[in-house]
Design goal:
By secondary structure, the protein is an alpha+beta fold. The termini are far apart. 29% of the residues are buried. The protein is globular. It is built from four helices and eight strands. It has helices at 2-17, 37-44, 159-162, 168-172; strands at residues 58-64, 67-76, 79-87, 93-103, 106-111, 117-122, 126-128, 151-156.
Length: 182
């Protein structure tokens, strides 16, 4: 009976460990709590990423029903280029490119051909696009599409991997395909 009780206590304890509350980084954020010594120690021991010192260069993706969404970041921290493509159907997409500026847990994306800047949350491994984007970003997407609320996971850590993200619009228009992080 003691073994059953010990097992039950262990299961309840482990379940309680998984019910963490969001921290100051926002809902569902994986950012550390700078006031929590355990979080700080884990970051200092490199058990979790520090978005302020983790270079964001690479490829981020998410599989969806309509296709693979992607965002690439290439170049150096002070001169990064980005490209993004998000799918909502066979021809309904968001696609654009521009310059990116990394500042701690935020990456500012400024699109070249649209009056659009989006501040994306960055935790070292995941990019989270806010749930509302500026109206000027409509030019990046087709009708009935939006990048708002997109979440992309890091799948590549180099410029070479970032350059693998290609234009979907070029494919649809039978043009030579170009890398979005040019």
């Amino acid at each position: 009976m003691k073994i059953i009780w010990a097992a039950f206590t262990l299961v309840i304890t482990l379940a309680a460990c998984d019910s963490r509350q969001p921290n100051d980084g926002g809902p569902n954020s994986d950012a550390i709590d700078a006031n929590n010594p355990l979080d700080v120690a884990a970051r200092d021991a490199h058990l979790i990423d520090d978005p302020g010192t983790t270079v964001p260069m690479g490829l981020y993706e998410r599989e969806g029903a309509a296709g693979t969404d992607g965002l690439c970041l290439a170049g150096q921290d002070d001169a990064m280029r980005f490209g993004v493509v998000m799918h909502f159907g066979p021809t309904l997409i968001c696609e654009g490119s521009g310059t990116a500026q990394h500042d701690g847990a935020t990456i500012a994306l400024r699109f070249d051909n649209a009056d659009c800047q989006i501040d994306v949350a960055y935790d070292g491994r995941i990019l989270r696009i806010p749930g509302a984007v500026p109206q000027g970003c409509d030019a990046v997407c087709g009708e009935r599409a939006s990048m708002a609320g997109g979440i992309l996971n890091r799948v590549g850590w180099s410029n070479a991997e970032a350059l693998q993200l290609n234009s979907r619009r070029d494919v649809l228009q039978n043009k030579p395909v170009r890398a979005l992080c040019h």
